[in-house]
Amino acid sequence: MTSEYKMIIYEKKDNVAWITLNRPEVLNAQSDELRAEVVKALEDAGEDDDIYIIVITGSGEKAFSAGADISQFPVKYPADLVKTKGRRRPYELIREMPKPVIAAVNGLALGGGCELVLACDIIIASENAQFGQPEIRVGVIPGCGGTQVLPRLIGEKRAKELIFSGRFISAEEALNMGIVNRVVPLDKLRESTESMIKDFLRNSPAILKIAKIAVNKSLETPLSVGMSYERDLYAICFGTEDQKEGAKAFLEKRKPTYKGK
Fold it and tell me: Most buried residue among 77, 107, 140, 248 by CB atoms closer than 10 A?
């Protein structure tokens, strides 16, 4: 565990970086300071060649993150937010990072908490999890990707309903909408996350990166452009050591030994 952080717990073990939002007394609300620490941890994990997978979760059983720290809202004005526009935020950083990022959602994921979850590649939710974009109830709109990512996941009409009403949805409803990948009992959340990680780690970390880049591109380009981009990335795979090892191991009927190169 790295001790330089005050609002998160940051651990690295077995090629996995665990980032735990650690303000349970305020349901892991995201202050500016907490977001800055998450960015720092993400940057560290992204640059660490020994880290293949990143997991983000919250401390306690009540909340992943209940959203922004509303106590900071009364003293904020447009100029304050404009000044931060060029500052790196965890939401964009997660999407840009060519490493799989898993959200293990324990309890409430609301507002900025929901947007942090939506930025992740895979979402595993506990049965007590709830999701929502209730920003409209405090006089703002989602400002960390909610109006952009949610419609891409669940469609324009359902996204507008959730954003216009600010209502919460259960883990099961989120699963049915296609927001989350799995719903598991709260006491099985860590175990289920680790099980999925094992599935991912059986594969080449280098090719996992390329796969994430390819899928993300599909959400940003017309199909014809995306197909061309995919073909280029497919060709790049053949320049990696891991591709040669994977093919050779398959033909020799043995487990591959990947190096991430």
Answer: 107
